[in-house]
Structures are given as C-alpha cells and as structure tokens.
Amino acid sequence: MTPETGNTSSIKPPRCRHFTADGTRCRLPILDTRSHLCFRHSALVAAAQQPQYDSEDLSPDLLPELSEFSAGTDIRQFLARLLTLVTKGRISPRRASVLAYITNQLLHSHRAIILETKAVDEEPQRIILDMPRPERDWPEPVPPSHPDMSWLRPDPKVPSSKEPL
Fold first, then answer.
1. What is the rounded distance in angstroms from the CA atom of residue 31 to the CA atom of residue 43?
2. Radius of gyration of the chain, Cα coordinates, nearest whole angstrom
3. Strand partners for 7
4. pLDDT (tens digit, 9 = 90+) per residue, 135-163?
5. How many Å from the N-terminal Cα to the C-terminal Cα in the chain?
6. Model pTM?
7. Do 16 and 36 contact (CB within 8 A), yes or no?
8. What rounded mean pLDDT belongs to the chain?
9. Which of 26, 21, 51, 55 is nearest to 39 (CA)?
C-alpha cells in the first residue's frame, strides 16, 4: 500500500522471455537485462554456448608431423584436419578461415616458385618481327543499301516538307 494513493497494487518485475514447447511463458523474474532471461534459462543458454578459445595451441592436431608444406598433399592434409576440428567445435570458424586463407597463399607461392624456376630453365621465347602478312581473299565490302520503301505512298493529308504551312 503506497502512502500517497492508498493503492495496494505492486509493480511486478518483468518476466523471463523463455517459452516452453507447449507455448507457456516462464514466470520467473529476469536476471540479466541483456538477455531478458531468468537465472535458470540464462544458465542453460550459457552452458550451450561454450566459449571458443582462439589462442589454444592446436599444432599437435593440425601438424602431427612437422611439415614445411612443400607439396600440395601436405596442404590438403592440413585442410582436412582443419575441417575436422571445425566440425568438432574445437576451433572457431573465424580462426579456421584465417588458417585456410594462409594455406591458399602458400599454394599461390608454390605456383609462383614453379613458374620462376621453369622460366629460368627454359630459353627465352623468340619474337619474329618479319613475318609475312596472311593472304586474305575476302570480298570487297558492299555499301549499305537503303530498304525498299516504294510500297509507302505519301498521305495527301500530311503536309510534306516542301509545302508551306
């Protein structure tokens, strides 16, 4: 009962926003104002969302034998292990995408090294400047003709450009 109004109604705290499978709403007051959940349901949500530590050392899982990634098969095996760790939830998708990008750069560097060594091993290509011109027996171009419009007859009602207005 408030002294000013004499009213016995009290202000109810906001309720949890969790709904059960049958559609009823939880009756407990909210604990966290960001999630609008009670203590019971906020604990369930926190347990379901395990934090992923992006600083965890995963080198024993990703690199069981030390490899210099000198061949494409090494990179393929690395990516297969990375996929396994992502699907198991041991590595975040963000960290996995960074590692996959780095392996993509490694593949590009392998290709560049192969092209450089191949260019050194081969003799440079010769450019022939005095090649004969090809003989072409093309017909002479025909000037464009205007379409036949003889079937059009001038309308006597429409003034021509030669008649005064």
1. 10
2. 40
3. none
4. 777 777 777 677 776 677 767 776 666 65
5. 97
6. 0.40
7. yes
8. 76
9. 26
